[in-house]
Structure formats: C-alpha cells, structure tokens
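Try this one yourself first.
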C-alpha cells in the first residue's frame, strides 16, 4: 500500500474517532443543558427513519440539524440519536418502525457500505461479519437464503444503541414523559397529518401549516431521491422508502427466527395482532 493510501486511511480513522467523541459529548450536553438551549432530540433504532424525522423537525422548527459533526454541539438544534432513554432527556421525538423492515433495510445498508470508501475500518468489520455469517459462498443477492442468519445477528447483537436490541430499545422509549412517538409507517402514509400532530405535541402549539408543508415538500422521498416510494436503488442510502418490504425477503424460516427473538415486541407495538403472522409467511 502506498504512502498516500496509508495517510488517507489514517485520516479517516481519526475522523471516525472525532465523530464518536463528539457524539458522546453532545449526548452529555443534551442531558444537562438540552432543555434550556433548547435542543430537540430525534431518536430511533438504527434504520427506523431517524434521519428523515430529524430533517422534518429541523425544517419545521427552523433550527440546524448538524450531520457528521466533528465537534460537540451546544446550541439550539435537532440532534440525531439512537440512545437509550434517560429521564434527563430534553423534548424528544421517537420514531418506531416494524423490526422486520429494519432487518431488511440494515442488510442492504451493510452491503452498500462495503462499496464505499468512507470508513476502511467499518468496511473491514463488515467483510469479517459476512465471512463469519456465510463463509466463502456468500451471495449477497440471495436475500431469502441469507436473511435467517442475518436477522438472528441483528436482533441479538445490535450496534449504536449501547447494547439494546430492537425489542428493548423500542419498549424502553414507550410511554415516557417528554417523549412524543411517531412511526415510520405513519409518516409514509400521511406525512403532513402526522408531522402536524407531532410538532403540535412537541411545541405545545397548533402546528403551522405553512412550515409543515415546507418541511414535507423539502424532505419527501421523491425530492430527496428523484424516485417514487417503492422504487428501489440499492446504491442509495434511501433505498426504497416503503413499508412492508420484509415480505419480499422473508421466508417462513426467517419469520420464525424473528418471532423467537422479538415476536412479543412486534405485537406490543401493534405491528401484528398476535404471533400467528408467522404461519402466513410462505415456506421457501
């Protein structure tokens, strides 16, 4: 490897360390000073639509939404988070999403990350992960065959949530003071109505329809990607913008794995009436 490549990798590694340190410092600032600044938290389990939620919030509230920051944030702003709940948290919007869609979205997110040059260390970790899960015969396009093992991994060994699984994270945030919950599915179904409700609850004032419309128009899936919801681009961070995509990739085996690890939470959050949904998933 040449010197230029080594220098680039060293710079990227330092960049990642600064991001992590800044994120932790920002969390501590939010817990202590977030209500007075004020800071607004947009939180969810990874791949729940948290970035979209924070974009909508920041545009409506008229405050910055710092992304990929290398220094701690200590100002009125919207902060993207995957943190566990803490009673010291300032006013927070929590976005829930069907855990089955999260596993599928995470799978394709990991595949996309393998082709990016953003973080060599992360790419190396993902290569090791897929090697560990599937060995040398790994075919990334065979999602139905790959999904059972991947779902077990994601639901058992989460990252970025301080060890909380999807079930634990989503239930940890449920029915908490200062926390206003929305869902990815509700925002997809009627972004204007759902954002109006959410902003009204968070601010304690009737939502401003002009600001709502501005936020919705600026951050719609079509505006961000040039595609309609459901049109897939696996190279894009916003891959598909659709609820229920798990049905295209789950087999009965995958459904049974998910149900064994997170079936109770799926029912508790209203995504299924009971655990008999597994029996309706086709056998491969």
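Now uncover the answer:
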């Amino acid at each position: 490897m040449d010197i230029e490549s080594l220098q680039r990798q060293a710079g990227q590694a330092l960049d990642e360390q600064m991001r992590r340190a800044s994120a932790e410092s920002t969390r501590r600032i939010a817990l202590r000073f977030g209500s007075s600044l004020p800071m607004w938290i947009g939180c969810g389990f990874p791949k729940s639509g948290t970035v979209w939620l924070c974009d909508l919030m920041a545009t409506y509230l008229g405050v910055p939404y710092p992304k990929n920051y290398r220094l701690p944030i200590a100002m009125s702003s919207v902060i993207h988070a995957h943190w566990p709940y803490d009673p010291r948290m300032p006013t927070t919007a929590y976005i829930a999403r069907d855990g089955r869609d999260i596993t599928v979205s995470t799978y394709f997110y990991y595949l996309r990350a393998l082709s990016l040059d953003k973080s060599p260390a992360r790419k190396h970790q993902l290569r090791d992960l897929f090697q560990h899960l599937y060995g040398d015969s790994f075919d990334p396009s065979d999602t139905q065959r790959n999904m059972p093992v991947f779902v077990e991994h994601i639901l058992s060994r989460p990252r970025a949530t301080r060890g909380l699984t999807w079930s634990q994270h989503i239930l940890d945030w449920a029915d908490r003071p200062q926390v206003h919950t929305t869902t990815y599915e509700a925002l997809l179904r009627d972004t204007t109505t759902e954002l109006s409700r959410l902003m009204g609850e968070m601010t304690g004032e009737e939502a401003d329809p002009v600001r709502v419309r501005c936020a919705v128009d600026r951050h719609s899936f079509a505006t961000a990607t040039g595609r309609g919801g459901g049109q897939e681009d696996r190279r894009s961070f916003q891959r598909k913008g659709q609820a229920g995509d798990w049905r295209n990739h789950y087999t009965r085996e995958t459904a049974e794995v998910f149900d064994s690890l997170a079936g109770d939470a799926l029912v508790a959050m209203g995504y299924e009436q009971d655990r008999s949904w597994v029996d309706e998933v086709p056998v491969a």
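Discussion: The radius of gyration is 19 Å. The mean pLDDT is 91.
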